[in-house]
From TrEMBL:
Species, as recorded: Urochloa decumbens
Domain GH16, residue spans: 21-231
Region feature (Disordered): 167-193
Active-site feature positions: E99 (nucleophile), E103 (proton donor)
GO molecular function: hydrolase activity, acting on glycosyl bonds; xyloglucan:xyloglucosyl transferase activity
EC number: 2.4.1.207
Protein task: Catalyzes xyloglucan endohydrolysis (XEH) and/or endotransglycosylation (XET). Cleaves and religates xyloglucan polymers, an essential constituent of the primary cell wall, and thereby participates in cell wall construction of growing tissues.
Protein name: Xyloglucan endotransglucosylase/hydrolase
Family: Belongs to the glycosyl hydrolase 16 family.
GO terms, biological process: cell wall organization
Assigned keywords, A-Z: Apoplast, Cell wall, Cell wall biogenesis/degradation, Disulfide bond, Glycosidase, Hydrolase, Secreted, Signal, Transferase
Keyword Hydrolase: yes
UniProt-annotated location(s): Secreted, Cell wall; Secreted, Extracellular space, Apoplast
């Protein structure tokens, strides 16, 4: 989908746009500060979130969305970022919320950033995975994205899937995975999958030196503050929830779930080819996990003596 011009965007917003698109410098069409307003800083066409000894900072999207793709072109804190966590995530809010997280764990100069992903379903998380990256994320902008629809939640780095959380029920219908019932039968419960809750997009930067870097052993060195994460673009292509509707509005659920076409146009993120990875993407995922996965809750038997149901067959 092409980046809309400002004119088109204003029209789209007036129509209740399916796709809200932020070109560089148009962040304020999409997001607003969520706390410590003065720690969200515009710098020309860029947007920075700042952490100093006084505060971190963050933003939240003006709309909520049910299904779509949210992405950020992001350059992480350069140099010494030990203790500093930058997060980019979707959350529906409330006790029973769904949440899809990217958390970027800083490190001392020259040591690798780790990217932690997690999923909360109905308020329950504890699904952490960690990867290192095949590039220096502080040297340039890279695109981090979450695609979510009723069949899967996909975490992507520069279009390479690094993690997929599948709807086991919809998966069962696909012949490619028809045998997964065998191993799955060893666990009693069907894996949970996030239900239709509209999600807002968030980003924040904060001090997490109690746990983030080398298990909390390396603390934030405040003589290197301020720490800044820089955004070139934040964008959501998704079904925008009506501003006046409650989060459980049945009409909105039906509108955003029901068809691949809304009144605003094609909901490409819900088309059939988006219900599972392509063969090429499956190969990319295997490559990313083989070379860059450093932690997976699915195989952490200290934390989970009984393997979580969604992990069966891995
Ligand atoms: C999972 O997939 C099934 C089959 O396509 C569908 O009926 C169900 O609504 C999906 N679950 C969720 C929570 O979206
Ligand atoms: C930081 O660097 C150390 C040393 O290379 C590494 O063991 C660790 O996984 C890195 N990341 C974090 C978050 O500690
Ligand atoms: C929200 O506003 C639209 C347009 O004004 C209206 O059609 C709809 O009924 C409203 N929905 C709710 C839940 O109030």
């Amino acid at each position: 989908m092409a980046v809309a011009s400002l004119g088109l965007m204003v029209v789209a917003v007036l129509l209740g746009a399916a796709a809200l698109v932020a070109a560089a410098g148009k962040f304020d069409e999409v997001v607003q500060p969520s706390w410590a307003n003065d720690h969200m800083v515009y710098d020309g066409d860029l947007l920075k979130l700042r952490l100093d000894a006084n505060s971190g900072g963050g933003f939240v999207s003006k709309n909520k969305f049910l299904y779509g793709k949210a992405s950020a072109d992001l350059k992480l804190v350069p140099g010494d970022s030990a203790g500093v966590v930058t997060a980019f995530y979707l959350s529906s809010g409330g006790d029973k919320h769904n949440e899809y997280d990217f958390e970027f764990l800083g490190n001392v100069t020259g040591e690798p950033y780790l990217v932690q992903t997690n999923l909360y379903i109905d308020g329950v998380g504890n699904r952490e995975q960690r990867i290192d990256l095949w590039f220096d994320p502080t040297a340039d902008f890279h695109t981090y994205a979450v695609l979510w629809n009723p069949s899967q939640v996909v975490f992507m780095v520069d279009d390479t899937p690094i993690r997929v959380y599948e709807n086991a029920t919809s998966r069962r219908g696909h012949h490619r995975h028809a045998s997964s019932g065998g191993k799955g039968a060893t666990t009693s419960s069907t894996p949970a999958f996030p239900g239709p809750q509209p999600m807002a997009l968030y980003s924040s930067i904060w001090n997490a030196d109690d746990w983030a870097t080398q298990g909390g052993r390396v603390k934030t060195d405040w003589s290197h503050a301020p720490f800044e994460a820089t955004f070139r673009e934040v964008r959501v292509d998704g079904c925008a929830w009506a501003g006046n509707a409650s989060d459980s509005d049945a009409g909105e659920v039906a509108r955003c779930t029901g068809s691949s076409w809304g009144k605003e146009g094609r909901y490409w993120w819900k088309e059939k080819e988006m219900s599972e990875l392509s063969v090429h993407q499956s190969h990319q995922l295997v490559w990313a996990r083989a070379h860059h996965l450093v932690y997976d809750y699915c195989v952490d038997t200290d934390r989970f003596p009984v393997q979580p149901p969604e992990c069966a067959g891995r």
